[in-house]
Amino acid sequence: MPIYEYECKACGHRLEKLQKISAAPLTDCPACEQAELDRLVSAAGFRLAGSGWYETDFKSGSKKNLAGGGETSGSAA
Questions:
Q1: Please, what CATH class does the domain formed by 1-44 belong to?
Q2: What is the C-alpha to C-alpha distance for residues 12 and 35, in angstroms, rounded to an integer?
């Protein structure tokens, strides 16, 4: 479930709420009790890093296309 950020247009209160994607957005501010909450756009909270990915762990031989492998196709000299 994603964590959504909200900000109240009336009082400026900010909050985070763990909600299902299918859940309706919150509207009532818990601080001032006005129906002025807006859902904010924020960055994703995960990063793809480390081992365990197909490119590094499951491909073999010439099928690997790792950064710094030396050869690149379609590059100009």
A1: mainly beta
A2: 12
Average pLDDT, the chain: 78
Q: Is the pLDDT of residue 23 over 90?
A: yes
List the chain domain ranges: 1-44
Q: In what order do the strands lie in the sheet with 14-18?
A: 14-18, 3-8, 37-39
**Of 19 and 71, more confident:** 19
What burial class does residue 71 get, using C-beta atoms within 10 Å of its C-beta: 0-12 exposed, 13-18 middle, 19+ buried? Answer: exposed
Q: How far is the C-alpha of 32 from the C-alpha of 12, rounded, in Å?
A: 10
